[in-house]
Amino acid sequence: MGTIECRHLRKDYRRGEEVIKTLQDVDIDINSGSFVALMGPSGSGKTTLLNLLAGIDRPTGGTISIGGTDIGTLGRNALAAWRSANVGYIFQLYNLVPVLTAYENVELPLLLHALSGKERHQRVTEALELVGLADRYSHYPRQLSGGQEQRVAIARAIVTRPTLILADEPTGDLDRSSAIQVMDLLVRLNKERSQTIVMVTHDASTAARADRIVYLEKGQIIDAAQMELVARAAHSAQVNRHAPAEAPR
User: Fold this and answer.
1) pTM for this structure?
2) Is the pLDDT at 235 greater than 60, yes or no?
3) 55 in a structural domain
4) Best CA proximity match to 79, nearest among 61, 59, 63, 55
5) In CATH, what number is assigned to the domain containing residue 12?
6) What is the count of structural domains for the chain?
């Protein structure tokens, strides 16, 4: 895959006459094979950045180079082909097709590739075994727990053998035990397969499993020192709000 390089990245959205600046002049490098967690308050631009890296959305300005390919210059068909070959996307709410079995859900991305039925079967079986669900291949989503559904979603994301995995709050809808299992799996994929992972999360313990944490605030990346200042200011404001009022003299 190679290094991800974002330069002066900007994303605006229009709401009527209003322009909403979701990302503003973002510069970030992500090394191949690394595991990066994106943190920040709601509306800080985390998911927007993830969607730009996936080629799901287009930047308003700036460049995104992934492995030497400037994906912002690719036409619609070329971008779709690039994404299919290189990116696996994991959603918070799984996004499984309810009328398809676990096997069929995982097989879906492979239908876009020139593979024989035997090759597809081998890849789907391998992916389900890797996430520990080889015995659930004929189950429908409604027959699975939330943690199992997310592991099927991970199998679907990795079945094409992508070099880049993007995960949007992959543990956000799970109980603690299931969340740990999912994170163990993502760490394993990163360490054993050298797959680059960029993950959005609000949970500090989940983010701590990554190699690096990147903080966003109001569409901009803030470094660790700035984050410490923000945290102290927030803590001070909270203390002041709850401090007893001074008695009148």
Assistant:
1) 0.86
2) no
3) yes
4) 55
5) 3.40.50.300
6) 1
